[in-house]
Write a structure and sequence with these properties.
By secondary structure, the chain is of the alpha/beta class. It folds into two domains: 30-166, Rossmann fold; 185-317, Rossmann fold, CATH 3.40.50.1980. 38% of the residues lie in helices and 14% in strands. It has a five-stranded parallel β-sheet with strand order 5-4-3-8-9, covered by helices on one side. A five-stranded mixed β-sheet has the order 12-11-10-13-14. It has a two-stranded antiparallel sheet with strand order 1-2. Strand 3 (56-58), helix 2 (61-70) and strand 4 (76-77) form a beta-alpha-beta unit. Helix 7 (208-216) crosses helix 12 (303-317).
């Protein structure tokens, strides 16, 4: 009997030891487990990282938006967006620069930064995957709704061990959106359009910021149907449009993101003013045409940018209700 008791006690102790050893990682950060270091990007490519990424190179604005949210400096960027004070400010001037064009970044510059993760945009940077294989994994993002932006934020938060920061930022944006939605009269229709010349595009309800506007005001521009023309820049939910088509719906307000980057370049609204139909638009007659910051409305794509664009839109659309942005 004593032998049986001793043997049972030994087996119990061994079982408890084994359970403790196997379960030791379950209480830790998800980023310390193999599962926590896996992601599937917008191209359907699944990657498992060997360790949490600490050196992230940004080929697209949502990367800088997310890293600024998480308090992580990118090791290299291909634009100056991060120098905006809402992101990194002047500190971003010290970030290594990736040369080349947005659609064709210099791989050698990415390699010099020795990243352990590179973040790019769909329909633009996936072709770099093979060239980047000896350097770092590539995470392709393609947010088509604000929930996608939140998902990407939480994904990078998980991979970098900053899930609590990401969750708090996601909740802050969702709370702001919910507050605007609850207080908005939703009595005005609006349209967000963008471009560099009279061959412009609009964002539908199936676009990133379209999904935001559709929550807080009338946005009568449904997503494109299957087979319908899409924007040449492949922005999700964006379609080519015309002044005549705008006039057919005649929204109360127009939000215009002009790609007027060259010195002396005219804004899109000034270019479209030459169209005879432009002056017949209700928004034009009522002085409700607003040139907006494309960084926040289009290029940023993350929750910081979406929050800034939301504040800007609601104070323009309903100034008597929102004389200043909601906290």
């Amino acid at each position: 009997m004593r032998l049986r008791v001793k043997l049972s006690a030994l087996l119990l102790a061994l079982a408890l030891f084994t359970l403790a050893a196997c379960g030791g990682s379950t209480g830790g950060s998800p980023s310390t487990s193999t599962q926590g270091l896996s992601f599937t990007d917008a191209t359907g490519t699944t990657v498992t990282l060997a360790k949490p990424p600490t050196r992230i190179a940004c080929l697209v604005g949502i990367c800088e938006d997310i890293l600024a949210t998480l308090g992580i400096d990118p090791v290299a960027v291909n634009d100056t967006m991060g120098q905006d004070p809402h992101f990194f400010g002047d500190h971003a001037k010290s970030f290594a620069r990736i040369g080349g064009q947005f659609f064709d970044p210099t791989v050698e510059d990415i390699a010099k930064a020795t990243p352990d993760l590179v973040i790019g945009l769909a329909n633009t940077h996936e072709r770099l995957r093979d060239a980047l294989k000896p350097i770092a994994p590539l995470y392709i993002m393609n947010p088509a709704s604000y929930t996608d932006s939140i998902k990407y934020l939480k994904d990078i938060g998980r991979l970098t061990g900053k899930s609590s920061v990401a969750d708090a930022a996601a909740k802050k944006f969702q709370d702001k959106l919910d507050a605007y939605k609850a207080q908005s009269p939703k009595s005005k229709s609006t349209l967000l359009m963008y471009g560099a010349d009279t061959n412009f595009n609009i964002f539908t309800q199936g676009s990133l910021f379209g999904t935001v506007l559709d929550q807080v005001t009338s946005y009568p521009f449904p997503p494109p149907t299957a087979g319908a023309p899409t924007a040449s820049d492949h922005e999700p939910g964006a379609i080519p449009y015309s002044v005549d088509k705008i006039l057919a719906k005649d929204p109360d307000t127009l939000l215009i993101a002009s790609f007027a980057f060259a010195p002396g370049a005219q804004t899109l609204s000034k270019q479209l003013a030459a169209n005879p139909a432009w002056s017949h638009l209700k928004a034009v007659k009522d002085g409700q045409v607003f040139e907006v910051n494309p960084t926040y409305y289009i290029f940023g794509r993350g929750t910081i940018s979406l929050g800034l664009a939301l504040d800007d839109a609601m104070t323009r659309l309903y100034p008597s209700v929102f004389p200043k942005p909601l906290a």
